[in-house]
Every structure is written in C-alpha cells, then in structure tokens.
C-alpha cells in the first residue's frame, strides 16, 4: 500500500516484473493457434507461396516491421531496428509438400493442385512449416512490443522453396545480405516429430547432409525379347549398375565418413517381349563433407560409364541437380544456446539430438559466412508420444499422418526462440 501511494504521489512508474518468454507464449497461444490453423489450411507448394507470403508480410507490417516482398521469388524480408547492437536473422520456410493429408483433423488441408506433369495432388504442411511461419510472426509481435529488452536489428526472413532446396540460394542471389545487411547470427527452428513437445534439441557441428539428385539414363540397343543376342539390354546394364553403386559407400569410403547412395526410381521398357533402348535411374546422394560429396559423385559417374563400356553400350547420360550443401551448426553458438535452453526448460528437457542425412537449405546462409544455428522443438504431446511409441506408429515428417500438437508446440517454439534471441541481443 505504501509503495502504491508513494508511486502515485511521486509520479514514478510502479515496478512491474518482466514477463518470462514462457509467460508471454502461454498468454498468446490462443491467437497463435488461430494463425497456425490459417497456414495449415492454406498450404502452397515451393515457389507458389503467394498467399502465404502476403499473409506473413501483412502480419509483420501490422507490428511496425519494415517489409520488402518478392525477394528471391516469393520471399519476404522484414527489418526491425532498435538502436545499436548485433544484427540477428530469424528464418522460416514458407512452402508445403505435395502430400494428401490423412490426419482426420477438423482443420485438415483440403487443397489440391496440379503438379508440373498435370496430375492432381494434395498439398499439406507435412513438415511443420506452418508452425515455423506462425513462430516467426510471434517473434515479430514479441520483439516489437518489448523493445526495452533488446538492442540491435532483427531480420525476419520468410524463405520460399526449402523443400526444393533452392529458396535460400534464390534469396542470396537476389542480394539478400547486400540489401538488408549481413547478420551476425542466424537462427531457425524445426519441428521434430519424434520429440515430446516440452523438449528442445540443440547440437553443434554437422546436423544435416549435402543433398544431390542424380539422373542416369542407361542406353542400349533395343530389339525383340526372344533375340537378346541382337540387342544391348539397358535393363540388365542398369541392374548391374545398381548393385555396383552399393559398393561406393561400403568399399570406397572410410567407415567414419557418412554417405548414402539410394536408387529411388528405375523405369525401363514397355512390354514383356521388347528390349528397350533406355533405362532411367533416379538417385539421391547424401554426405557431410565436401570431399566425400565430390568422391561419391565422381564414383557414380565412373561406375556408370565403366559398366556401360563393359556391356558394349553407348555412354550413359548423367545429370546432377538440386544440390544443397550440408548444414553445419556453429559450435560456439550451439553451446551458448544449449545453456540458455537448459535454463528455460530444465536440463532433462534439452538434448543434443542426432545428426541426420536429411537436407536443409538453411545451410546456405552458413556457407555465406554467417554463424547459424537450427535447433529442434518437439511437436508431440508427451502422453500421445508415449502411446504412439508403444504402438511403434510415430508418424515421421513428410507423412500424410503427421500433425503437431499445435498449442504446446507453439509455446515451446516461442519460448525457445525468444530466449535465444534475447541472449544474443540483450541490452
């Protein structure tokens, strides 16, 4: 009572305890959940994120962020300045996947579009990008209303086409850092379908792999299936190549150098008794180091040409595309953030997490010279995760059955990203 009377008479503002990141996230989770449902029901494929980008831009502008649209295609860049201090970039991906949702949720995506070949496909946020987008907007809302807690410049980045592995490069090629400033740090989070929603994963070093797609057209000489001696059978040559490719990792690479060569598709021939002229293979190739990446791609070409020569076949056509570099989390930054997360969530709820041979073009910002960190947040409420684990039926990312328990996930996402950003930008 005395304090209240004193502050009223003196005109000094009464002291207010600053709300914690968790308190803010919990207080605002209802409005964030509604925003999440919008993005979940309006998914768009890579480089088609027109409505998504427009909504992100609208939400950023509403809290006073200076917004530029159309960067690198459908990319959105928001800048919020608050005096002198470091520049920190917070990034979300915008795109969804050509997956037909089977979750049975009341707000399940019903969007369908035609793919480049004219086939109608469902579209779904099966990789949690709707959580990421909502979280970026949450960050803009928080930091625009809590300027007393931080100093510097925040860049809010809405990036297209992560699923194609090319959106980050498009934005960098559009002079992202030259136009908006090169950040001192870049942070991103990613939902983890195998982690409880009250947990965070944070690890330095390699976390995700180099990703390359390789198309091999094995050529031969077609003819009658009853007269194979008059032909050069491309399917037999392709079969020998598939087996030979498996020895690249097992016999050419050091056991301590991870690599994957997977033949995901083989198409050849038209009829039982016809030997065709070609057989088409599609490969995905994964690695961590640049040296291993170069060796594996070189070995694939060497084996394809060698086996064709041994069969007396024309030289195959080999095309490498959709390359994404490995993602290396800055180790000092990861160690620093791990300590922050342990204070926020408790030591038992922060784990290093395992490196994966999946891919993420957030790596491109690291290759451009920025210390980066992508950490993981759990997406499954603990009790549901326990039930699914007992059934051995935990849906993975990219599954038509995957969905996050949105409200606890949004709280963990906002709490962790606020705390991480404040650590880097505190006054």
Walk me through what this model shows:
The chain is an alpha+beta fold and 427 residues long. The protein has 12 helices and 18 strands. It has helices at residues 2-10, 21-41, 50-62, 129-145, 167-173, 176-180, 234-252, 290-310, 331-345, 363-367, 382-390, 406-425; strands at residues 66-71, 75-82, 87-93, 112-114, 120-122, 152-159, 185-196, 200-201, 205-208, 210-219, 223-224, 259-268, 274-275, 278-287, 317-324, 327-329, 350-351, 372-380. The strands form 5 sheets. An 8-stranded mixed β-sheet has the order 1-2-6-3-7-18-8-17, sandwiched between helices. Strands 12-14-10-15 form a 4-stranded antiparallel β-sheet, covered by helices on one side. Strand 1 (66-71) and strand 2 (75-82) form a beta hairpin. The longest helix has 21 residues, at 21-41. The model is unreliable at 12-16 (pLDDT under 50).
State the helical fraction. Answer: 25-40%
**CA-atom Rg in angstroms:** 25 Å
Tell me, rounded to a whole number, the average pLDDT. Answer: 95
How far the N terminus sits from the C terminus, by CA atoms, comes to 32 Å
The assigned structural class equals alpha+beta
**Proportion of strand residues:** 25-35%
User: What is the overall number of helices?
Assistant: 12
What is the H-and-E element order?
HHHEEEEEHEHHEEEEEHEEEHEEHEHEHH
**Could you give the order of strands across the largest sheet?**
1-2-6-3-7-18-8-17
- Oligomer description: single chain
Structure described in brief:
The protein is of the alpha+beta class and 427 residues long. It is built from 12 helices and 18 strands.
């Amino acid at each position: 009572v005395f304090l209240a009377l004193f502050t009223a008479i003196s005109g000094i503002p009464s002291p207010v305890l600053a709300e914690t990141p968790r308190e803010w996230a919990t207080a605002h989770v209802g409005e964030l959940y509604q925003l999440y449902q919008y993005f979940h029901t309006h998914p768009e494929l890579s480089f088609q994120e027109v409505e998504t980008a427009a909504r992100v831009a609208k939400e950023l502008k509403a809290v006073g962020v200076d917004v530029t649209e159309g960067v690198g295609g459908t990319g959105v860049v928001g800048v919020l300045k608050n005096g002198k201090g470091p520049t920190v970039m917070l990034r979300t991906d915008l795109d969804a996947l050509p997956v037909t949702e089977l979750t049975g949720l009341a707000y399940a995506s019903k969007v369908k579009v035609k793919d480049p070949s004219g086939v109608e496909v469902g579209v779904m946020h099966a990789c949690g990008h709707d959580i990421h987008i909502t979280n970026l907007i949450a960050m803009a809302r928080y930091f625009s209303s809590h300027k007393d807690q931080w100093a510097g410049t925040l860049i809010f980045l809405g990036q297209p086409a992560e699923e194609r592995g090319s959106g980050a490069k498009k934005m960098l090629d559009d002079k992202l850092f030259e136009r908006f400033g090169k950040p001192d740090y870049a942070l991103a989070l990613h939902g983890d379908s195998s982690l409880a929603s009250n947990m965070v994963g944070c690890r330095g070093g390699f976390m995700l792999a180099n990703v390359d797609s390789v198309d091999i057209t094995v050529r031969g000489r077609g003819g009658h299936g009853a007269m194979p001696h008059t032909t050069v059978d491309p399917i037999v040559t392709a079969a020998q190549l598939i087996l030979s490719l498996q020895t690249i990792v097992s016999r050419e690479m050091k056991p301590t150098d991870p690599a994957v060569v997977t033949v995901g598709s083989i198409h050849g021939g038209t009829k039982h008794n016809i030997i065709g002229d070609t057989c088409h293979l599609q490969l995905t190739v994964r690695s961590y180091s640049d040296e291993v990446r170069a060796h594996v791609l070189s070995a694939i070409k060497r084996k394809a040409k060698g086996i064709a020569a041994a069969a007396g076949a024309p030289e195959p056509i080999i095309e490498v595309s959709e390359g994404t570099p490995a993602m290396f989390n800055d180790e000092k930054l990861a160690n620093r953030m791990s300590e922050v997360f342990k204070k926020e969530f408790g030591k038992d709820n922060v784990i290093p997490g395992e490196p994966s041979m999946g891919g993420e073009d957030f790596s491109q910002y690291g290759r451009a010279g920025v210390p980066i960190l992508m950490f993981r947040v759990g997406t499954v409420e603990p009790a549901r995760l326990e039930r699914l684990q007992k059934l051995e039926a935990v849906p993975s990312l990219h599954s038509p059955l995957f969905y996050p328990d949105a409200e606890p996930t949004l709280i963990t996402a906002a709490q962790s990203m606020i705390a991480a950003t404040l650590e880097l930008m505190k006054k």
